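S.,

Sequence below, as promised.
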Amino acid sequence: MNARMDESTGSGTRQRLSRVRRRLLAWYDANQRDLPWRRTRDPYALWVSETMLQQTRVETVIPYYERFLARFPDVESLASADAEEVYTLWTGLGYYSRAHNLQAAARAVVEEHGGRLPRETAALRRLKGVGRYTAGALASIAFDRPEPAVDGNVLRVLTRLEGVRDDIGRVPVRERLWQIAGELARGPRPGHLNQALMELGATLCRPRAPVCASCPVEAACDAARVGDAEDLPIKSKKKPPRPVGAVAAWLERRGRALVVQQPQGGLLGGLWELPGGEIEDSGDAEQALRRHLTERVGLALTGAERIGEIEHVFTHRHLRLQVFRCGAADGRVRRSGLAAHRWLSPAAIARLPHGGPTRKALALLGHSGE
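The prediction came back faster than expected:
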């Protein structure tokens, strides 16, 4: 580990970090992007933004954030909303467990905190879906508390600034970076300081081709001095996403098609999709589809035409979904392992909250509603 990492909190380190802090705040004041959540101090609105920004680009989040707050302007309206409406507004943003957790936590805020978001990080972290980063961001930005908030951008900035050339996947390395972030957060305007670190990572201290010459803390940056900024941070390689095969059916009866809702929890919990299921790589797709429909919705097929295949990459899974257009024998749906089902028109199906694979399957079938 770099020598700077071993200096702990000595006076020299404090003075250096104090200079870094001043330069970051001055740079942020002059260069921050005009983002909608930076125009408010409402803890609820900031919470929504931080939840949406998890693993999602700023440009993607902005319209979702504005629509969401227009419909659910406060924690009470979100807590009392129908879950399907919440999912519908989230459709296309991905990582749908965030929407489920946000609403569950909103209900806890109403029931346990009188509708006011708690100010302390320990209390914030007891809310469903609020982790260490989100708690620190809310405490500092909404409540001006000197708490660190280390996301991917901040991790990259601090790794380069301190010259950390160890695997950031190691717990001691990450904890030391959190400690440095905590030292930087101490002082006036901790929320702006944390946002300055995030902004620097998003705009100048980028993963590739960092713009070191324009960086406000270049003179204090170990990686800029050595010339290896683009090589940092060092991360152990992730395993590639696991390949998964699946089948889905556009199962039509008298102008309406069957859609099913996954139970809460799991990868796409609470969302609507076409009936089907996973298959073995070597298995017969049509035969597997017939089996899934019999077992999960109790219906036999009267025909199956393969329309094509879509791909969708999740964090840990690479899905290849074969899509069929089918007819169904008469009879009632008998669900197994599903929360609900509906027979709907193509336009109504397109309006339901659904995940990326279903969106792509509907487009393949010509029923995307666009």
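The chain has a mean pLDDT of 93.

Coffee later?
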